[in-house]
Amino acid sequence: METDAIIIRRRVMTGGVDCNGATANQSAALDHIHGYYKEALHRLPPELVPSLLDAGFCFGFLDPVSNIIANTVSHDLHKRSQNRKKRSRAGISKNGEKSESRRAAISKIITESSKDILLIPRPSDSTNALLLNSSIAARSLRGLVAFLTSYFRYLTTWDALRYLVLSGADLLVAVHLIQEVRDACTFTIHNPTARIALRCAAISALHPAVDALVSRSFLLASRADEASKPRRDTGLHQRFHYRETVLLTSTTTDMISRGSPMQQAIARLQHRKAKAVTRLQRRKMENFPVGAGLQISLKMALLDKIHLLYLEAISRIPKHELRSRHHRGLLKAGHCYGPCDPVTNIILNTICPQVGETLWSTPEVKLVLSSSDVLTISETLSQKLPPGKSLKKARKLSNRATKIISAYRKEFEACQGTIIKMAEAALLIYAKQGQEYELHFICDVNSTIPEDGVGYCPHSYRYPFSHMNILARPRGSQNDQVPTLFFIQCSNSDEHMQDKAFLCCPISDPSKDAGRCYHCEYDGIKIIHPSSKCYLGHCTDFEEMARGESAVNAQGLVEEGQRNTLFDGTLEYEDSIYFDPAWDVDFRMFIDQTARDQAR
């Protein structure tokens, strides 16, 4: 009896990535792209084949074939407008010459091996020369990867390849799949991060006219319905109407079709699933295995969502109560898990850290609490707690350990005073727009923001700027009004507080503001950045990564950010600030040992 052969493939792991699997994904994505170019060549007139081979990339906000056609025509228009090259009409009178042109183009596109493709940009002139000699399909794949890693946080090159295989190398379908997995907000072409990501894609693919591609891609996205519906010819193939596209790509009307490119991408995905021949193919599209790298990506995205829960919980606790009594409880025991919804769990665990899992009938906290509410909750929970053991008298710290903790606390208080002054000064400047705000709470601060375009800084570098999130309430408002989350970018110098880099703006919906910042992500600091504003770290550094001019690539940015988020190396400093010898027994032993080690 015949049996199916079992093939065992040795896994080669590099940095948590299955290299064989990554190569297979790269080849599979290229196969999809090759199919799009074959279809586009059947629909384009032969005189446009040179423009296709130069800059007819398959990325953009339409379907892949329409992107190829639109980018080809757009590039041809750009060349003619710059008087660089006149289109040649040679060969259009004989069908044999037209077929030969297409066959030669297809051969040039598909003959390149996936092993020769450089998906990760490198700072080398020889690398750019090699890439320029690569096929348009290979450069398109590089651009697709660059868009995804520039648009989404924590997405590495290899993770992007996984999604491109699942989506059939369709950019917006891949975006939709990532958003579904992360439960993120729906992509729109009006998000400025999308424009930056498209620029990075064009730069990474070495497009000869980046600005022209970006502007016409957004213009075409507004007419997605028209651009994606070719008319039928009397011949066997659907031919692309050149004159119609010239008019379409040269229009200057504003974008009017919000969300329509994404809706069409979802429709393409459903059609792709319906065409899956076997049950196995459908299962692979719906439930693909999560690799080690993708687990890290999802873990970091989940931490972002948990961070939003803490921002909401902090906004509901009265300022005085949070600053004077419950800040230690928040940091030490304000966990989001428990019998209630996550925000309520954080508040209850903060107010009464010993609650544990004893309060299954506690109601959800929906409104902003008052000081009396906090006191009532604290007394009620204390009565429900089981009797505990009396605390033993804490052993006294050594003089050296006491001095270490005292020094850390003085340093923290000085730093805190400086940050408070910066935040209040920023709110005073913002008040000139007509509304005064008073500081409620400082959420997150990154005081190591360099000049624009300075991605890596030596230890001797003095950082000139800070990013921070604060909660502030309109001055004179009622205590039950939920504070507003602000983003602030300001100088670390009092003399230059209002320089050109200053920015202070409210964030209306933290769950939808997806502005990226190279510096905050690298440092592992979770600050909510406004997607509709320009700030240091949101554009230039990502473009440098796309060019290969940055010391850190997409993979390195994710790894360094994860390391700084989960293992920031400041345990000794941060635990000293809220140290209580009666409760923090482990840290008391740690700081005593540290003092003894320093005395040797």
Could you please describe the fold and organization of this structure?
The chain is of the alpha+beta class. 53% of the residues lie in helices and 7% in strands. It is built from 24 helices and six strands. The strands form two sheets. It has a four-stranded antiparallel β-sheet, sandwiched between helices. Strands 1-2 form a two-stranded antiparallel sheet. Strand 1 and strand 2 form a beta hairpin. Helix 3 crosses helix 10, helix 3 packs across helix 12 and helix 16 packs across helix 17. The N and C termini lie far apart (76 Å).
Distance between the termini: 76 Å
| Total helical segments | 24
Q: In what order do the strands lie side by side in the largest sheet?
A: 3-4-5-6
Radius of gyration: 29 Å
| Helical residue percent band | 40-55%
Element-level helix/strand string: EEHHHHHHHHHHHHHHHHHHHEEEEHHHHH
The proportion of residues in beta strands is: 5-15%
Largest sheet: 4 strands, antiparallel
Q: Averaging pLDDT over every residue, what do you get?
A: 79
Structural class: alpha+beta
Described by the principal axes of the CA atoms, the overall outline is elongated
- List unreliable stretches of 5+ residues: 1-16, 84-97, 231-241, 246-259, 356-363
Number of strands: 6
In short:
With 600 residues, the chain is of the alpha+beta class.
Can you tag this structure with a few keywords?
alpha+beta; two-stranded antiparallel ribbon
